Amino acid sequence: MIDADVLRETLPGQWRVLATTFPMWLTGRRVNPCFTYGLLPGSPLVLSDEVSYRTKAGATRRITGVDRFDAASGRFTWRGTGLLGPLSSRWRVTHLSDDHELIVLTFDRSLVTPAGTDVIGRGTAERPDARDRIPPDDTLHWLR
User: What is the pLDDT of residue 44?
Assistant: First the structure.
C-alpha cells in the first residue's frame, strides 16, 4: 500500500490517461482524457479532482469532484460536485513507477461505472515506453 505522504507529493498536477479498461474511454465518443488533482486542506489527504476530455465534435467536458483518502484501506473515495454530488466511487493507486511519472489506478464498481483500471502519465505528453514500465495487464487498451 502506498502511504498518504507519497501520494500527497505525487498526485497533484495533470495526468493523461494512457491505457484503460473503462468503456467510457474506449467508445471513441470521449477522447484525450486527462485527470487533474490539486491538494485541498484536510487530513490525512484530500484532493480536488477534475476529469477532462474532448467530445468527437471537439467540445471540452469536465467532471469534477473531491477525493478523500482513507489510510486504513489505502483507497480514495471520490464524491462528485454540483449536479454530480450524489455520485461517489472508490479508487486506489496500485502501482507507482520509480520516477513517479506513471501510475496505475484501479476503480471499484460504482452506481454508474464498472470496476476498471487506468494507467496515467504525468503531463500531456505521450509515453511510448509506458507499457514496459508497468506490470503487464492483458485487459488494458492503450489509447493514442
Answer: 83
Grid cell 483500471 in the structure block, residue: 117
Question: Which positions of the chain have pLDDT values less than 50?
Answer: none
CA angle 118, 16, 106 (to 5 degrees): 15
**Which positions ≥6 away from 29 have C-beta within 8 Å?**
55, 56
Name the CA dihedral angle for 80, 142, 106, 40, rounded to a multiple of 10 degrees: -40
pTM recorded for the entire structure = 0.93
Work out the widest C-alpha separation in the chain, in whole angstroms. 43
Residue type at position 64 = T
The 10s digit of each residue's pLDDT in 44-56 is 899 999 999 999 9
Report the C-alpha gap between 45 and 47 in whole angstroms.
7
